[in-house]
UniProtKB/TrEMBL annotation:
Domain Thiamine pyrophosphate enzyme central: from-to ranges: 213-340
An example Gene Ontology molecular-function term: acetolactate synthase activity
Family of this protein: Belongs to the TPP enzyme family.
Organism: Streptomyces rishiriensis
EC number: 2.2.1.6
Keywords: Thiamine pyrophosphate, Transferase
Domain Thiamine pyrophosphate enzyme TPP-binding span(s) in chain numbering: 414-568
Ranges for domain Thiamine pyrophosphate enzyme N-terminal TPP-binding: 11-120
Listed name of the protein: Acetolactate synthase-1/2/3 large subunit
InterPro entries: DHS-like_NAD/FAD-binding_dom, THDP-binding, Thiamin_PyroP_enz_cen_dom, Thiamin_PyroP_enz_TPP-bd_dom, TPP_enz, TPP_enzyme_TPP-bd
Length: 572
């Protein structure tokens, strides 16, 4: 028999809210589902009674919920709560959950199922679970491949501790999303009110002096060392520690195209660009600092360099195939390892240091000259239809100078241009969206939520823009007062797909006939228009002469509190 009546009191919904409050979640990012009525009732009761609880964000798409949690976690580095709907909602948000795994963002994701399907005692869960929503094995089985840890809460009495465990696992290296299936019957079950245990921040493991000393000797003996890093800036104090290390030893730093955040000031004389290629034959020591996948193809081994891997978890369990060619590991907290090595930067061979410093000065001057030349050429093409993407990035750099802006990047063919010409130079000033296109607006909104005092710019291609849940993202921006500057690099084509077709079949039928399938976006309307129903500032730019003024107006609108979308027709 089922009972459809409801009664006020303490139940599993309150247990879940209590647990998220105890673990220190600032927010519950929720894409609504019928299982969350007990949570909503608990929140309403707490709001009425003045009791503490995480702030609830009512979001209208799963990708927006997870993406905002990702963006918030990129800056805060603390686990938040994400509530999705059953297995279908989990599947809808799965790309973004996988992106959080790749980006190393801690979060606890929950959704539900039914365990009685209306045939058990207590309140009726509803026929939708029996007919439509359930999956064999439960949603925790679905979540396993794209989360760090996935399981089911089997009792209301263990639910709070399960949330604590999920948060602690999500927070520890390698950080990432944990999933907890909380059946609806458990959310509706009476709870005894026992307190959930707060989450303790992760302790740190350190490499011992006996492990650090040999690496310091390797660096001291090297004539041409180089640092390669993808995610050092994701670690707490990692950006600052890497800067101090590189300066102490006078070692260049390469951020390859696979870098997912800002790790080192791009304006610094020791920044050695994004191409690891020249170092594969020239370097005698490669220091891979939080570098998951430095070599491509993976079998491309350095010709003479020894390889030292500095990473708390060098062998990432979620990477299917990972090749590092390591000769030595320094495991443990990355910032601490770098600080220990910095202290050992003594008795250097000044002649060898002078040689590599001169070589890096030459490389840096050549890169600066190349950037300046590219921008000069972009300026020279001002009279053509469309805008050179180099000019878009350079203009943004000038307008953001001194503003401590944050750039979230969801471009593909223009990503190198964005990184090279925007010149982000602060910690937490650049993030590249991970795991698949279609999350950029949500991730940028989450970043803005964590850094309201800083301007946040999303650079995005027209193809990626089309993948985003735009309506739900704009709704969240307006509802929670999270103004962004969205700059669309619109070349009206899936350029990356087209380039691959041309690369694989240079003399094929498509090249002969001009029939390039799967790439044309000319049929889309101009993309700024989608923001107009939300009362946002919009600009459509087709000429270089109009670019600067349009971006200035857009930034002023953002400063005034509204999202601004600038759709720029680019030439390539």
């Amino acid at each position: 028999m089922t009972d459809t009546s409801t009664s006020p009191g303490v139940d599993g919904g309150d247990a879940l809210v209590t647990a998220f409050n105890a673990v220190g979640a600032d927010y519950l990012f929720c894409s609504s589902g019928s299982e969350w009525a007990p949570v909503w009732e608990s929140l309403a009761r707490r709001h009425r009674d003045g009791l503490p609880c995480p702030r609830y964000l009512d979001l209208t798409h799963e990708t927006v919920a997870v993406g905002m949690a990702t963006g918030y976690g990129l800056v805060s580095r603390r686990p938040q709560g994400v509530l999705l709907h059953a297995a279908p909602g989990l599947l809808q948000g799965s790309m973004a959950v996988h992106g959080a795994l790749l980006a190393g963002v801690p979060m606890v994701v929950s959704s539900s199922e039914s365990t009685t399907y209306g045939d058990g005692p207590g309140q009726d869960p509803g026929g939708q679970w029996y007919r439509n929503l359930s999956v064999v094995g439960g949603p925790h089985g679905v979540a396993g491949p794209f989360t760090k840890w996935s399981t089911e809460a089997a009792s209301v009495h263990t639910l709070p501790t399960m949330v604590t465990r999920a948060a602690e696992l999500a927070w520890r290296s390698p950080a990432g999303p944990a999933y907890l299936n909380v059946p609806l019957e458990i959310l509706l079950e009476e709870w005894d009110g026992r307190e959930a245990k707060p989450v303790v921040p992760p302790g740190s493991t350190h490499s011992s002096p006996e492990e650090v000393d040999p690496v310091a000797r390797m660096i001291r003996d090297a004539r041409n060392p180089v640092v390669v890093t993808e995610t050092a800036g994701r670690e707490t104090d990692g950006f600052e520690a890497l800067l101090a290390f590189a300066e102490a030893w006078d070692i260049p730093v390469v951020e390859p195209d696979s870098a997912v955040c800002g790790n080192f000031p791009r304006t610094h004389p020791l920044h050695a660009g994004s191409d690891i290629g020249p170092w594969m034959d020239e370097a005698d020591l490669l220091l891979l600092v939080n570098c998951r996948a430095p070599f491509y193809p993976p079998s491309r081994r350095p010709s003479k360099a020894r390889v030292v891997v500095i990473d708390e978890v060098p062998q990432r369990p979620h990477i299917v195939y990972q090749v590092l060619f390591a000769d030595a590991y320094l495991e443990g907290n990355v910032a601490n390892s770098l600080r220990q090595l910095t202290k050992r930067a003594k008795d250097l061979d000044e002649a060898a240091v002078a040689v590599r410093r001169a070589a890096q000065d030459e490389r840096h001057a050549a890169e600066q000259a190349a950037v300046a030349e590219a921008e000069k050429q972009a300026e020279a093409r001002r009279q053509t239809e469309g805008v050179d993407p180099v000019l878009v990035a350079a203009t943004l750099r000038e307008l953001l100078d001194g503003a401590h802006g944050i750039v979230v990047d969801e471009t593909i063919t223009h990503s190198r241009v964005v990184r090279r010409h925007l010149h982000t130079a602060e910690a937490d000033s650049y993030f590249y969206v991970q795991g698949g296109l279609g999350q950029g607006i949500a991730v940028a909104l989450g970043v803005k939520l964590a850094a309201r005092e800083r301007p946040v710019v999303l650079t995005i291609g027209d193809g990626a823009f089309a993948y985003n849940p735009v309506v739900a993202s704009y709704d969240a921006s307006r509802a929670y007062e999270l103004p962004l500057l969205i700059v669309v690099f619109n070349n009206r084509v899936y350029k990356s797909m087209n380039l691959n077709h041309r690369r694989f079949y240079p003399d094929g039928a498509a090249a002969e006939t001009g029939e390039w399938l799967g790439t044309d976006l000319h049929r889309l309307p101009r993309l700024a228009q989608f923001a107009e129903p939300f009362g946002m500032h919009t600009e459509t730019v087709d000429t270089a002469q109009a670019l600067g003024a349009a971006l200035e107006r857009a930034l002023r609108a953002v400063e005034a509190g509204t999202t601004a979308v600038v759709d720029v027709l680019v030439t390539r």
